[in-house]
From TrEMBL:
Organism of this sequence: Brassica napus
Identification of the protein by name: (rape) hypothetical protein
Length: 104
C-alpha cells in the first residue's frame, strides 16, 4: 500500500542520518554542534532549509542537458550525515526532524 511504502521511505531516509561505522570514519570528525541558528531564523525558514536539503538527499542532483532532457546523479549516504549536522545547526528538535521526514 502507498502508506506502507511512504513509511518505509521515511524510515530509510531517517535511518541514513545515523551513520554506520565505515561511513562515519570516511567523513572524519563529527561537526561542531554548539553553533545553532534557532534564535536567528524563524521556525518556518529553518524547517524549509532542512526540507530542501532532505529532498536533495532523496532525489540527487538534477543536471539539464541539451534538447530539454535532464539526468539525475545518485547521491551517496554521506549527504545524510550532512543533513543530520544541518538539523543540529538549524536547532531543530528530534520531533521537528521526524515530522519533516514524515511530511514528505
Amino acid at each position: 500500500s502507498k502508506g506502507a511504502q511512504e513509511d518505509d521511505c521515511f524510515q530509510h531516509s531517517l535511518k541514513k542520518t545515523r551513520p554506520d561505522k565505515e561511513l562515519a570514519e570516511k567523513m572524519g570528525k563529527p561537526g561542531q554542534t554548539e553553533i545553532t541558528l534557532k534564535d536567528d531564523l524563524p521556525d518556518r525558514d529553518r524547517i524549509d532549509l532542512y526540507k530542501t536539503y532532505l529532498l536533495y538527499c532523496l532525489t540527487g542532483e538534477v543536471t539539464r542537458i541539451p534538447f530539454g532532457a535532464q539526468i539525475t546523479t545518485k547521491r551517496d549516504d554521506s549527504e545524510y550525515l550532512l543533513l543530520n549536522q544541518l538539523g543540529g545547526i538549524l536547532g531543530l528538535t528530534s520531533k521537528e526532524i521526524v515530522n519533516i521526514h514524515v511530511g514528505l
